[in-house]
Design goal:
single chain, alpha/beta, Rossmann fold, TIM Barrel, 2 domains, seven-stranded mixed β-sheet, six-stranded parallel β-sheet, 17 helices, 17 strands
Amino acid sequence: MNEKTCMKTLTLIPPSKYSKNVARDLVYGCWCKGKRIAGIEFPPISQLQVTCFIREDGHEADLLDAAAMRMSVADIQEEVRKKEYDLVMMLTSTMTIREDAEVLRACKEARPGLKTVVWGSQPTFMPQASLAIPGIDIIVRREAEPVLKELVNRLARGDDSWKETLGIGYRENGSIRLNEYMPFLEDLDILPIPDRRLLPSDIDYFNPVVKRMPFTTMFTTRGCTARCTYCASPPFYGKKVRFRSAQKVIEEMTECAALGYREIFFRDELFTASKKRVQEICEGIRERGLDLTWICSSRVTNVDEEILPLMKKAGCHMIRFGVESGVQEILDNINKKITIEDTRKAFRLCHQYDIDTHAHCMIGSPGETQDTIDRSLAFVKEIDPTIITFGITTPYPGTALFEQVQAEHPEIGDGTGLDLTRLHTDAFFNQFFTELSNEELSRNIRRIYREFYFRPRYLLKWLKRIRSTDELKRVILAGMNVFDFAFRKAG
């Protein structure tokens, strides 16, 4: 390997003591968990891509989805000891970093001399605080793949050249050192197609909105031109959208179909950012005769009468939209840059072309009152999405909202006071920008789920749409999870 030795690396998806299902697949971290999202699980494709990128240079790179495999920390320690890994890497976030560091400490105890590295939102926006947590040796800021690939190559040399890697931070002689950022990848096509054969072979990731099993996920864009005050995506990915080419997307979809997958869940936040590219992808799917259904996300302003029928014919059966609120004043307060009528039109068009919809919404945004919450719920019932998720607006590090709160209330610290036990169901400093208490916001979240999901008309509509025994089983399990959350306060 040209003056290098082979590194043995492990990309670890750790279990959580707080929840069986934590959505840890997004490139910048994990943001959802538990019964509020109906027990949904996502395969760790972004971490798998990191693993495969490192493998390109000849290193032994493994992925271990210990969460999906229900492994204990002791099980992970045994795996690290047995395989004699040199480096354990982990995607983390504000809500999980302290718990994740405990797992990394256990790995280091099992394998003296082992180095650990984390990437994600929290190491990016709170690097000093992250490096102060025992168990974490190195952090990566922003986009991980090019940084980790270079870091592993330099570590393999056995000298100190790894400390020169752009985009990392580390401790040295009692001080914290942060290197300059590594430039963003301009050409996302250089990233490898993740080898899904490296995923656990006996795990079926649960997802009730998926029409056909087995399913997998894909990432085809990064970056966002929006400036929503609650979102950490633009400062993490960059303030413009970068794309994988339509040809590369079709190539990966073709490989997924060959492996037996029947549905793709695109995890991009802005799959529809380029109308031309979406058209090319839809044309490519039909030209190759790919028997795949799919789900994607969009802004409400990025769909119209021209693109929706093309998407439907190419297999799209659901679009996820960031609705956030049904009150224009609240949308303006969070700099959403959409109107209520934009949302009405998008959902009306999806109904017209028989495409299911998922409305992502929040309560507890700046200016929120009981009246605006009630109006938002009424609006969501009016636009009639197939499914909803509601959470409490949270000031995360890296967002404009966090900076506003931190300026007046430095006691928010590094944001890790919000862990998975409270994520999206308890308020976190919301009392400083809403009229509602923590108890009122938490009570409203569960009330919204009860009033939306357990309407007789809504339940009857779901029963009519079920087409198979497998789909019925998934819907029943999802319904039980939502029922537990709404009525029994189980997270």
